[in-house]
Automatic annotation (TrEMBL):
InterPro entries: HAD-like_sf, HAD_sf, PGP_Pase, PGPP1/Gep4
Molecular function terms from GO: phosphatidylglycerophosphatase activity
SUPFAM superfamilies cross-referenced by the UniProt entry: HAD-like
Residue span of region Disordered: 209-228
Record's protein name: HAD phosphatase, family IIIA
Top-level taxon in the UniProt lineage: Eukaryota
Coiled-coil region list: none
NCBIfam families on file: YqeG_hyp_ppase (TIGR01668)
């Protein structure tokens, strides 16, 4: 995937980095998805009620640009599914990726179907002009239409990128949990799958928190869901 393939995300990220950089900080930070606390709500500021979760694919559930599922991650997803926060509605967990399901391209649709088959979870079919971090209204509409929640503050976004996963949570008015190290193989934890931009985000986050003492603002007033 080209380095700057998601130009709208890059523009929005740069605008916030210049004018409101704290917006790019996550509400929670974990090394990888395997460390996600369950239930999630008590680990977040103000201990909100959480009823829905969005999971990123690339470098969160799977190695980047693949749909390869390690048993440890399959087991973690099953624990998320069984958590009281998400066990009441089968639509409480949604995969949102800027590859799988992000366009009508055969490879993106094939990845989405593979994930749905192997994980038993839905993959959002994104509008081609509204990839993360611009797909917030589509996520909100999904959870509303499936009777999960209409309150964006009951939704948490989990992923490895500040510029897409954390930023879409900010745009929605939801909570964010950042997988700082991305995807790691438990048998080979030293191998780093992060790309250049991800590593730059890590430096930015360390500077903001450690150097400048900034913290993530609470979820803002949410966007309204849009019609397709």
């Amino acid at each position: 995937m080209p380095l700057f393939s998601n130009v709208p995300a890059l523009r929005l990220t740069l605008a916030y980095a210049l004018h409101d950089p704290s917006t790019l900080l996550p509400h929670g930070t974990i090394p990888t998805l395997l460390s996600l606390p369950l239930p999630i709500g008590p680990s977040l500021p103000t201990k909100p009620r959480i009823r829905a979760i969005v999971l990123d694919k690339d470098n969160t559930i799977c190695p980047p640009e693949t749909a390869n599922l390690h048993q440890a991650y399959l087991s973690k997803v099953e624990k998320i599914r069984q958590s009281p926060e998400f066990s009441q509605n089968v639509h409480s967990i949604l995969i949102v990726s800027n590859t799988a399901g992000s366009s009508s391209a055969p490879e993106h649709e094939a990845e989405a179907k593979q994930l749905e088959l192997e994980l038993g979870l839905p993959v959002l079919r994104q509008h081609p002009d509204r990839k993360k971090p611009l797909c917030g209204p589509d996520i909100l509409r999904y959870f509303k239409d499936h009777g999960v929640t209409e309150d964006p503050k009951e939704i948490v976004i989990v992923g490895d990128r500040l510029a897409t996963d954390v930023l879409v949570a900010r745009e929605m008015g939801s909570w964010s949990v950042w997988c700082r190290d991305g995807w790691r193989n438990p048998e080979m934890p030293g191998r780093d799958y992060r790309g250049f931009l991800s590593k730059m985000e890590n430096r930015f986050e360390r500077l903001m928190r450690g150097g400048l003492g900034r913290t993530a603002p609470p979820p803002k007033t949410a966007l309204q869901s849009e019609k397709p």
